[in-house]
Structures are given as C-alpha cells and as structure tokens.
Write a structure and sequence with these properties.
Elements lengths: L7 H4 L8 H15 L5 E5 H11 L2 H10 L1 E3 L1 E9 L5 E3 L13 H6 L5
Parallel strand pairs: 1-2
Antiparallel strand pairs: 1-3, 3-4
Length: 113
C-alpha cells in the first residue's frame, strides 16, 4: 500500500484550522498537565457543529472523532477530559506546545503552525 502524506488542506476545509485552534490548545494543555492524551473533548454545540460542517474536511473530522469522544454540552468553552476524571479547560490563546504534546501531530499527523 502506498503511503499518502497528509497535508493541512486534507484536514481543514479552509486550508487552515481557524477556530479549531481552541480544541488543539485544550488537548495540548491536557497532555502537558497530565502526561497523557484526553479521551473526550466537550465544547459548545455551535462549535461542534461548525467543526464538523465547516472547519474540518470529512477526513479531518473522522480522524479527530477517532481519537477523542466529542460532545457539544460545554457552553462557551472547550474542556478536555480523561477517563480518571482529569479535566483541562481552555484558557485562551495559543502557545507552542512541547514536541511530545502536539495534538495536531497526534490527531492528524500534520504540524499546524
């Protein structure tokens, strides 16, 4: 089977992550704080719908949903959760994560600058 390299254009419908940066930052923060990846991400229902229908391509959505359980029940915020009850809430902005905490690589195999 031939390996096909994933590009940002394959993942993001607009060619860049847009509001998805909040989800990426939240997952990065969870990994940095707890040393493991979250199992679920909760966000506002409008954001969840926008990610699925406007921001991510079908391939990008499938890859994200394959890594974490997604739900739209966290009004006005993004929260990453672990199986043992750990929780990390989006704190605003985006800071460059450590190399082993890059959720963009973990989810899509693409570094988002």
């Amino acid at each position: 089977m031939k390996h096909v390299e994933t590009r940002a254009e394959d993942i993001f419908a607009m060619g860049w992550p847009g509001p998805c940066v909040r989800v990426i930052s939240t997952i990065n923060g969870f990994r940095q704080q707890f040393g493991r990846w979250p199992t679920a991400v909760r966000m506002d229902s409008g954001m969840l719908e926008g990610l699925k229908k406007e921001i991510l391509t079908p391939r990008g959505w499938k890859m994200l949903a394959g890594k974490v359980k997604l739900s739209g029940d966290a009004e006005g915020t993004v929260i990453a959760e672990g199986d043992a009850g750990e929780c990390f809430e989006y704190e605003g902005g985006y800071s460059e994560p450590e190399k082993d905490c890059r959720s963009d690589l973990w989810i899509w195999g693409v570094e988002i600058d």
